[in-house]
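Technical annex, item 7. During the second reporting period the consortium partners agreed on a shared format for inverse folding records so that results from different sites could be compared directly. Each record opens with the tokenized structure and is followed by the designed sequence. A conforming record, contributed by the partner at site C, is shown below for reference.
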């Protein structure tokens, strides 16, 4: 039986429009911080510069629309999402967060960085971002900016995005299936169990996953499970309950999948750890 949940009421907040925000040739890296409450929503917008965003504490969801594809990223404090210039994105805060945005001049990063990506935030990078926040133009700031750029370029990447068919141009059957899995990944485990609901064969849907999303159903479902599980872990839901809600028969199987994908066990992402 399909489980339904009451829609979350989001609270719109304005994007930071400060006139001194944009990076310049002299100061190509600018860092800002702001506290945002759970369910705060920064509505769709874009910048002329690239942006590196993460939470010093808390959890956020960033959805980007790039070309014919929409992708949702769940971003815990140890990860950040990098967004190229002129890419539309919006942010939903899933847990009270200290948001950090690093605005970077388009010429400061390699020209082949044209796709959004999730980066692992090292301890050094976290400290550099903090040092840049509110800093004044100086030789020291120049050195910190250069080191921060180098650390960003060498950061490990991680597949934490959940690609979705374009809301207008994508296949409606595929989008309906993806939305259903995201709402409740435990309802059904196999693709063949889902396809009857969307009026397409298993072979057709498998092809659509490859053509529209560039992935297999199982690979996509793993990302969907992580997106479903991370907010629950952040709110302190027991791992056994998160595993069951994600469609796993045992805690150990869920934990093994999670650690392989995230590099750390689920307990690291529970509420007591996210503020560290």
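Designed sequence (site C submission):
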């Amino acid at each position: 039986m399909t489980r339904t949940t009451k829609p979350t009421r989001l609270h719109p907040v304005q994007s930071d429009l400060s006139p001194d925000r944009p990076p310049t040739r002299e100061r190509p890296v600018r860092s800002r911080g702001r506290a945002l409450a759970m369910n705060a929503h920064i509505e769709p917008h874009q910048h002329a510069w690239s942006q590196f965003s993460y939470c010093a504490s808390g959890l956020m969801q960033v959805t980007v629309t790039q070309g014919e594809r929409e992708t949702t990223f769940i971003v815990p404090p140890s990860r950040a999402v990098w967004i190229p210039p002129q890419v539309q994105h919006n942010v939903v805060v899933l847990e009270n967060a200290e948001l950090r945005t690093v605005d970077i001049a388009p010429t400061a990063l390699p020209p082949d960085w044209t796709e959004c990506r999730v980066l692992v935030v090292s301890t050094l990078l976290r400290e550099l971002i903090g040092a840049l926040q509110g800093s004044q133009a100086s030789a020291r700031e120049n050195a910190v900016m250069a080191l921060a750029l180098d650390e960003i370029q060498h950061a490990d990447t991680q597949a934490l995005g959940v690609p979705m068919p374009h809301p207008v141009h994508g296949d409606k059957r595929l989008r309906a299936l993806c939305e259903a899995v995201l709402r409740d990944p435990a309802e059904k485990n196999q693709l063949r169990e889902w396809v009857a609901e969307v009026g397409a064969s298993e072979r057709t849907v498998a092809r659509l996953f490859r053509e529209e999303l560039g992935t297999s159903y199982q690979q996509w479902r793993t990302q969907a499970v992580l997106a479903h599980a991370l907010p629950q872990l952040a709110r302190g839901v027991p791992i056994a309950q998160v595993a069951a809600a994600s469609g796993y028969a045992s805690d150990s199987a869920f934990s093994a999948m999670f650690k392989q994908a995230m590099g750390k066990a689920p307990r690291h992402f529970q509420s007591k750890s996210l503020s560290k």
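Residues 11 and 40 are 5 Å apart (CA to CA). Confidence is low (pLDDT under 50) at residues 1-7. All partners now use this format for quarterly exchanges.
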